[in-house]
């Protein structure tokens, strides 16, 4: 069965169990929103008036997560559901987390949530919606609205500013005016949020389906954008980002953003591509090693490939043999700036691929040594030069290649 169906089934079982033990139990937050909108929830969360110890008593296969907030993870097979005790949050002194929480009822729990669309409860047994915050109306009107006083809510937890943008983009909601005004006022405070959490939000914004909307919205808060990505929002559109297929990875989407910003162009050749920019992004967004490696490679090779007409076959083949050629080819094709050259590009690339971009070298180091050459400073250069001529198609057989080798070595 699909993961989300398993999660739904477990969440239903948990609510039944809680209710038959005399507790209140509802589905809460994102899953209620998604179902109302006719979308499939990623996962299900349960909210209850039972305290964490009681939840763990009722569900032996469980453990506390986020102990301070009274959240218990319950699992069964591959499915898992977070069960959170209704709570209100105490004072926020770090701009992200409440100093303490107090267990309470559903109404108060709804009010501590971030946006009206995220503040709904649903009782899957009686099939009743419990809406203490006007969430249903806002979902119908496609409005993203902070619960309570927007300024206060963003001042408590600055990460909510990025969440607002992410949800508005993903759900195609308008950000309500006062909510927007509060983000405008408080945007510079995002610097107090950890780089890990910011990076996570940006990655989630780059999920399929709403990448361009998320970047447009983020760009409409220039201070926030600059603080998060370390560059000013650019005025052009997000054509490359919009051109990458839905299936593109987050790393590839990040690269598309850099191309959109023109961030990789106009660098002196001594400073290959935007590798310094990638290094800055790495610390800013806490990129993984894998993402960093992908971006560094792309940032180095893309500016060269953009001038592919000037590259020799050997040079292009060497790039094609690199670890992320598939991503590079996709991104080149996604850039509308290349629209008139992409057919010729594909044709040339196809022809080179048919020849083989990484054949076994016809001349090896051992073969050179057998010719009586002692490995020295020139040795590697000779091998490279011979391999280049092989890639160019000048040397096709071992005999041709060895003859060429003898000529070079003899000189
Ligand atoms: P997603 O589909 O992206 O998981 P979600 O609505 O489930 O969306 P989560 O981040 O999983 O979002 O959080 C679950 C719920 O917890 C939210 O719907 C919201 O009610 C509440 N919540 C999460 N983060 C915050 C926050 N920073 N401030 C207030 N409420 C929050
Ligand atoms: Mg969720």
Short description:
It contains 21 helices and 11 strands. 52% of the residues lie in helices and 10% in strands.
Fold and architecture overview:
By secondary structure, the protein is of the alpha+beta class. Helices cover 52% and strands 10% of the residues. The strands form three sheets. Strands 3-4-5-2-1-8-9 form a seven-stranded mixed beta sheet. The chain has a two-stranded antiparallel ribbon with strand order 6-7. It has a two-stranded parallel ribbon with strand order 10-11. Helix 7 packs parallel to helix 9 and helix 16 packs across helix 20. The radius of gyration is 28 Å and the shape is elongated. Bound molecules: adenosine-5'-triphosphate and magnesium ion. Adenosine-5'-triphosphate binds next to helix 7. Adenosine-5'-triphosphate (ATP) binds next to helix 7.
Supply Rg: 28 Å
Distance between the termini: 70 Å
Overall mean pLDDT stands at: 92
Query: Which class do the helix and strand fractions yield?
Result: alpha+beta
The profile of the biggest β sheet is: 7 strands, mixed
Output the number of helix runs.
21
- The fraction of residues in strands falls at 5-15%
Bound molecules: adenosine-5'-triphosphate, magnesium ion
- The rough form would be described as elongated
Into which percent range does the helicity of residues fall? Answer: 40-55%
Biggest sheet: strand arrangement:
3-4-5-2-1-8-9
Number of strand elements: 11
Uncertain residue ranges? none
């Amino acid at each position: 069965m699909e993961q989300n169906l398993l999660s739904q089934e477990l969440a239903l079982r948990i609510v039944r169990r809680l209710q038959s033990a005399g507790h209140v139990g509802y589905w809460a937050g994102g899953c209620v929103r998604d179902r109302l909108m006719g979308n499939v929830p990623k996962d299900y969360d349960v909210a209850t008036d039972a305290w964490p110890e009681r939840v763990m008593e009722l569900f032996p296969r469980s453990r506390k997560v986020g102990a301070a907030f009274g959240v218990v993870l319950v699992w069964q097979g591959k499915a898992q559901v977070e069960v959170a005790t209704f709570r209100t949050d105490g004072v926020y002194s770090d701009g992200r987390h409440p100093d303490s929480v107090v267990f309470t009822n559903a109404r108060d729990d709804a009010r501590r949530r971030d946006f009206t669309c995220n503040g709904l409860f649903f009782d899957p047994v009686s099939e009743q919606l419990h809406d203490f915050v006007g969430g249903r109306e806002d979902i119908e009107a496609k409005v993203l609205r902070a619960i309570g006083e927007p300024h206060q809510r963003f001042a408590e937890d600055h990460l909510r500013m990025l969440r607002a943008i992410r949800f508005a983009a993903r759900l195609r909601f308008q950000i309500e005016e006062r909510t927007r005004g509060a983000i405008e006022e408080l945007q510079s405070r995002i610097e107090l949020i950890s780089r890990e959490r910011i990076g996570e939000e940006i990655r989630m914004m780059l999920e399929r389906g709403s990448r361009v909307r998320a970047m447009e919205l983020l760009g409409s808060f220039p201070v926030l954008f600059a603080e998060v990505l370390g560059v000013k929002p650019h005025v052009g559109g997000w054509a490359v980002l919009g051109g990458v297929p839905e299936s593109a990875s987050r790393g590839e989407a990040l690269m598309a953003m850099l191309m959109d910003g023109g961030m990789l162009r106009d660098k002196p050749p001594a400073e290959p591509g935007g590798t310094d920019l990638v290094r800055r992004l790495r610390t800013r967004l806490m990129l993984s090693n894998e993402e960093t490696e992908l971006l560094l490679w792309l940032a180095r090779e893309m500016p060269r490939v953009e001038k592919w007409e000037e590259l020799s076959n050997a040079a292009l083949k060497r790039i094609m043999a690199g670890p992320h050629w598939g991503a590079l080819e996709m991104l080149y094709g996604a850039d509308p700036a290349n629209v008139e050259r992409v057919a010729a590009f594909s044709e040339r690339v196809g022809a080179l691929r048919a020849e083989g971009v990484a054949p076994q070298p016809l001349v090896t180091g051992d073969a050179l040594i057998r010719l009586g050459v002692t490995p020295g400073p020139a040795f590697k250069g000779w091998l490279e030069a011979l391999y280049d001529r092989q890639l160019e198609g000048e040397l096709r057989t071992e005999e041709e290649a060895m003859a060429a080798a003898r000529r070079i070595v003899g000189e």
